[in-house]
Specification:
The complex is a heterotrimer of chains A (about 350), B (about 400) and C (about 350). With about 350 residues, chain A is an alpha/beta fold. Chain A has helices at about 60-70, 95-105, 125-135, 140-155, 170-180, 200-215, 230-235, 250-255, 260-270, 310-315, and strands at about 10-25, 30-45, 50-55, 75-80, 90, 105-110, 190, 220-225, 235-240, 245-250, 320-325, 325-330. Chain A is globular and about 65 Å long. With about 400 residues, chain B is an alpha+beta fold. Chain B contains 13 helices and six strands. Chain B is elongated. By secondary structure, chain C is an alpha/beta fold. Chain C has helices at about 75-80, 115-125, 135, 145-155, 160-175, 180, 190-205, 220-240, 250-255, 275-280, 285-290, and strands spanning about 35-45, 45-60, 65-70, 90-100, 105-110, 125-130, 210-215, 240-245, 260-265, 265-275, 345, 350. In chain C, the strands form two sheets. An eight-stranded mixed β-sheet of chain C has the order 6-7-8-3-9-10-12-11, with helices on both faces. Chain C has a four-stranded antiparallel β-sheet with strand order 2-1-4-5, covered by helices on one side. In chain C, a hairpin with a 2-residue loop joins strand 9 (about 260-265) and strand 10 (about 265-275). In chain C, helix 4 packs across helix 5 (about 160-175), helix 5 (about 160-175) crosses helix 7 and helix 7 (about 190-205) runs parallel beside helix 8. The chains are: A alpha/beta (about 350), B alpha+beta (about 400), C alpha/beta (about 350). Chains in contact: A-B, A-C, B-C. Chains A and C meet through helix 5, helix 6, helix 7, helix 8 and helix 9 of A and helix 7, helix 8, helix 9, helix 10 and helix 11 of C.
């Protein structure tokens, strides 16, 4: 049974209150003793044709969020409203597996590891045509033509379709993965760290490709990454995640020049500057990343925050708007001054 | 978990090195590798493993014997002739007064004055020429074509004037011919047993690995219980329970069944392991996200991935089956005469007299050892080559 | 502090820069490690991979040398060659690696037998190695303390109790809280950042004068990476050791290194001070690499200049200069014929490119 909301033509994806908890089981009888709160009340929306990046470090929940949106994992709670063409938005979170199948064509994923995301035993033709075969689209000839078209679109020669993945480099394999994701003309493409396993010079090629494809095909990206410099090149908006929550969300420029959350500031300052003359002092975070199985009381970030006061230990801040289109999860956001990047 | 480590990426076939197939530098060779299927890659890897290749050749020869056992034998394995009891192996002499004329010496008998028994000794005066494609007893080649030609033999042989390449046993039956038939029985039991194990193993292992949870736990515990039962006492019990009046064929199948009931556990584990690791592969998730159903994922993605492992595990299971049958028959619990298998042959050599007086009766031990070793080497090679992408 | 030759090295003479940061000790005139024309090849059935093909550089005490490059450039093999732990079928075919040991004696590591007692005494005591994947460098069946104690006792010949004390001190030095407790824990019980610190502690337990860090922060989050880099800088200032930092991340190089060596397909294409490399790169590859790097300082949503093509397979090495098929400034007829030599263009700054006059 899918719930629908009034159509908001501009928004392709609207995530509200997403939660994903994993049970922790102990003992012989596998009793549930607690939960890992991998995604803890995440809300955001993406407008058609734009790119939203989810940024954070390991354990922050960004990959889990991406997988919940694609329903590779069933969410514990929350709504995921997808504008699946004309007509009302569909709540992906509430659909059964069977109802989901036709929707799969509208949202696809690009994976992080170019080596394990392609079946080494199938040819490129089989790999890229898989979504079409699985959904019964087109005849064999149609599919072959479409595969040739897709390969050309991502910068590979169509003759390559008879080859196997082992003949290609990491960057080329990632292109194959992108071609596969585009096979059924999806509206939403979720890219899970698509360039972090690639060499620097290849990263640039793939990022450019993604930008070009977005312009050409009107794609909407949900870009999951940990590397802020990559994020700056592709995003319209950035949402920073920590311990399963979004702690700040703003247009890209604002996040970089005027961060309003101490964690964002720390992330920005931790990125090594590629200029030996720029030796700005760093904000070093103490301690370890919060354990999502047993998060700290109040604000999850308070044990590592240099602005923490008593209230931060007791009150859990909500995500609130501090400037137009700029939300932050911090009790003291108005009082503190944080340092961003120059441009 | 911290994010993954920096790339292996950037270079293409680096992932296959250092076990990469033999590629010469150059575009043509690169093309060959790039369109190579997993089987070709496996073959190239297997080819470099010399011991495994040798083993494979031996195994092929052994199974050639299975098919052509009748052709290779020259005497009726069941024809007993008390007069020819316990004759020594006759070497083929290749030259007769300088000319190439393979022949054997015939036997002539004389009465021993002390025991009054007839004793046969080789008589150099009687030279029996050995020819190819000699006539012998009748049989059907490949089960279809009736003929009486054999690979080699003595032309127009009479009872005491024929070849005894490996000597005879106590009942005067030619050991070489019995060995050929024994090979046939032992090796086919191996195959049939393994097929049964394969079916059971893949089915149960697959269900276990795919579904996990309670089903998996139950099946795994069953496997552990089955494996913990000591095999020989189990077989003895089961074999002893077989009714005495069953025909050879029935006993044959019953023994096969018994052996494969234990053997499937190994295969089930291999299959389960592969399924478990495959489930986590990203390309499986990609297929799910593309909208593929469970069946398609299993058939198109998972099965090709574990097929090579299954082949390797199966090849390694065959020697176990063969040894099992040989051991059972050796102990007198498996096949019994007039059935012929390696175990039966060895069982008849199980006494002091054999060791002391007629050691040639122990000859069947050699093919057992050689074939088992060959199968093991071949299976090892297959297992190493099984995952060319690892 | 412990006495020299024993556990930890004496601190630097404490010179400070105006900003308050500890300066590295003044440049000694003689390099601690001098690599000359190192060639390490892998002889495989399919062909010979020239993993390192003529690398030359110097490492000075108290300074950090960065070796930077992409996959297949040979940076890890260089580190392994220095420590003589290159796996078969790889072998050092020519070149020299001269290490100046404690007391001034010089030894050419390439002439030593891999398994010799002298080489083994160099590993751990003179040169320490920090790996990329801290998970796999710790034995899962030994505690962190066990492994450190083993190393310490091997090189310094002290008793178990003394060795354990030194191990705890080293753990404290690298910033692991409650080291007396942690020393009895296993590698897998520590988080990524702590494990890498423990890895550094293990490498430092015998006070080596040279620390080779092979992509030490690649597997870590960026905030943890910042902590580890800060730690390395602090340790270098305190202990005065030299560091060879191997990485593909140019940002890390800019932050950490004094001198930089840029490698491509086994050859050194450029080397010089970090300032020269970043602000006046002379080799087309270095320039292209710097341009194609994503940066938080670039404008929002910009396309990046790229290097055409991709890194060739090691078996399909291009003839002549290995970079020429992708080079925007290629000179047809020259670059595909011979290999350019490493030529000094300014004091301390050299590049190997036909754009510059060859000897």
């Amino acid at each position: 049974m899918s719930t629908t909301t009034p159509a908001d033509g501009d928004r392709l994806l609207d995530v509200r209150g997403l939660r994903k908890f994993f049970p922790i089981q102990r003992g012989l009888l596998r009793r549930v003793v607690g939960h890992v709160r991998a995604v803890d009340d995440v809300s955001f929306d993406i407008r058609r044709g734009q790119t939203l990046s989810l940024v954070g470090e390991s354990g922050c929940g960004k990959t889990t969020t991406a997988r919940c949106i694609l329903r590779a994992l069933p969410p514990t709670a929350g709504d995921i409203l997808l504008q699946a063409g004309d007509g009302p938005a569909v709540n992906v979170a509430r659909l059964t597996k069977r109802e989901l199948r036709p929707l799969r064509r509208r949202m696809q994923m690009i994976f992080q590891d170019p080596f394990s995301s392609l079946n080494p035993r199938r040819t490129l033709l089989d790999i890229v045509a898989e979504p079409m075969v699985a959904n019964g689209v087109g005849t064999r000839r149609d599919r072959t033509e479409r595969v040739a078209e897709l390969l050309g679109l991502v910068g590979l020669r169509p003759e390559y379709m008879q080859r196997y993945p082992h003949a290609f480099s990491g960057g080329q394999r990632q292109r194959i993965g992108i071609a596969r994701a585009l096979a059924l003309h999806p509206a939403l493409v979720v890219a899970d760290e698509p360039v972090s396993a690639l060499d620097v010079s290849v990263q640039a090629q793939i990022l450019n490709l993604m930008l070009d494809l977005q312009a050409q095909l009107g794609l909407t990206y949900l870009f999951v990454a940990h590397d802020l410099s990559v994020v700056k090149h592709v995003s319209d908006r950035v949402a920073v995640m920590y311990a399963g929550q979004i702690v700040e969300s703003a247009p890209t420029g604002a996040i970089f020049t005027t961060p309003r959350h101490p964690y964002t500031e720390a992330l920005l300052s931790a990125v090594p500057k590629p200029d030996p003359r720029l030796k700005t002092p760093r904000v070093l975070l103490e301690g370890e990343v919060a354990d999502t199985a047993q998060p700290p009381s109040g604000c999850y970030f308070h044990p590592r925050c240099r602005f923490a006061v008593d209230a931060c230990r007791t009150q859990a801040p909500a995500l609130r708007e501090i400037a137009p289109d700029h939300t932050v999860r911090c009790l003291r956001a108005e009082e503190i001054t944080l340092r961003g990047v120059a441009r | 978990m911290d994010r993954s480590a920096h790339p292996r990426g950037g270079t293409a076939i680096a992932t296959l090195a250092p076990e990469a197939p033999a590629i010469a530098v150059g575009a043509v060779a690169e093309e060959r590798v790039s369109v190579a299927t997993q089987w070709q890659l496996m073959w190239w890897r297997f080819r470099r493993h010399r011991l495994a290749m040798t083993g494979a050749v031996i195994v092929l020869l052994a199974y050639a014997v299975v098919i052509f056992a009748d052709f290779l034998a020259y005497a009726d394995p069941l024809a007993s002739e008390a007069q020819r009891s316990l004759l020594r192996p006759q070497p083929i002499r290749w030259f007769d007064e300088g000319r190439f004329a393979p022949h054997v010496y015939g036997f002539s008998g004389r009465r021993d004055p002390m025991t009054f028994k007839r004793v046969y000794t080789p008589d150099p005066a009687k030279k029996l020429p050995v020819t190819l494609f000699a006539r012998g007893f009748e049989y059907r080649l490949l089960g279809l074509v009736p003929t009486d030609r054999h690979l080699f033999g003595v032309a127009d042989a009479r009872a005491e004037e024929t070849l005894f390449l490996l000597g005879t046993d106590e009942q005067g039956r030619d050991l070489w011919s019995r060995l050929m038939y024994g090979t046939r029985t032992s090796l086919t039991i191996g195959l049939v047993g393994v097929t049964l194990s394969l079916v059971l193993g893949v089915a149960l292992g697959g269900v276990s690995g795919l579904y996990g949870g309670t089903v998996d736990t139950v099946i795994q515990r069953v496997i552990e219980i089955v494996r913990s039962i000591p095999t020989i006492p189990l077989w003895m019990g089961l074999a002893a329970a077989l009714p005495n009046d069953w025909t050879i064929l029935q006993v044959y199948f019953a023994i096969t069944l018994i052996i494969s009931l234990i053997g499937w556990t190994e295969l089930a584990r291999v299959v389960r392991g592969r399924f478990l690791s495959l489930r986590e592969e990203e390309f499986i998730m990609a297929a799910e996200l593309a909208g593929s159903g469970q069946t398609r994922i299993i058939v198109s993605h998972m099965v090709p991935s574990f097929l090579s492992h299954i082949i390797a595990a199966t090849t390694l299971a065959i020697p176990t089956m063969i040894i099992s049958e040989t051991s059972l028959s050796f102990l007198g619990l498996g096949l019994r005469p007039p059935a012929i298998s390696w175990g039966v042959l060895l069982q008849q050599a199980q006494n002091i007299q054999s060791l002391a007086i007629s050691p040639w009766l122990l000859m069947p031990a050699i093919p057992v050892t050689v074939v088992i070793l060959a199968l093991n080497f071949m299976g090892d090679g297959l297992r190493d080559a099984a995952d060319p992408y690892a | 502090m412990h006495e020299p030759g024993g556990g930890l090295r004496p601190p630097s003479d404490g010179r400070r820069a105006p900003s308050g940061a500890l300066l590295p000790p003044p440049l000694e005139s003689e390099p601690l490690l001098a690599v000359r024309d190192l060639r390490t090849y892998f002889f495989q059935d399919e062909g010979t991979v020239r993993a390192v093909d003529g690398a030359s550089f110097d490492v000075f005490a108290g300074r950090t040398l960065g070796i930077v490059g992409e996959s297949g450039c040979g940076k890890s093999v260089t580190a392994r060659s220095i420590l003589r732990i290159v796996e078969r079928p790889g072998r050092i075919v020519s070149g020299s690696i001269v290490l100046r040991r404690d007391g001034g004696a010089e030894v050419d590591v390439t002439r030593l037998d891999e398994e010799s007692a002298e080489m083994r005494s160099i590993r751990g005591a003179d040169i320490g190695l920090v790996f990329q994947e801290p998970m796999t460098s710790f034995s899962p069946v030994h505690t962190v303390g066990n492994q450190m104690v083993e190393t310490i006792r091997l090189h310094q010949g002290v008793g178990k109790r003394e060795a354990l004390d030194r191990a705890i001190e080293t753990l404290r030095l690298v910033g692991i809280p409650s080291p007396e407790r942690r020393v009895h824990e296993y590698g897998f019980q520590l988080s990524g950042g702590l494990r890498q610190r423990a890895m550094i502690a293990l490498a430092l337990s015998c006070g080596p004068r040279l620390l080779i860090a092979d992509e030490p922060t690649t597997a870590l989050d960026v905030t943890t990476q910042a902590q580890i880099l800060d730690l390395l800088q602090r340790l270098q200032a305190e202990q005065g050791m030299a560091i060879i930092l191997i990485t593909h991340n140019l940002g890390v190089v800019a932050e950490m290194c004094d001198e930089v060596v840029v490698m491509y397909l086994g050859r050194v294409v450029e080397e010089g001070s970090v300032d020269a490399i970043f602000h006046a790169p002379r080799h087309p590859y270095t320039r292209a690499l710097l341009r194609s790097m994503p940066s938080i300082h670039s404008p929002v949503r910009t396309r990046l200049p790229t290097i055409t093509g991709s890194i060739p397979h090691p078996y399909n090495r291009p003839p002549g200069c290995p970079f020429h098929p992708r080079c925007p400034e290629v000179i047809a007829g020259t670059c595909d014929r011979g290999e350019p030599a490493l030529v000094e263009l300014a004091p301390g700054h050299a590049a190997s490119c036909f754009l510059y006059p060859q000897p």
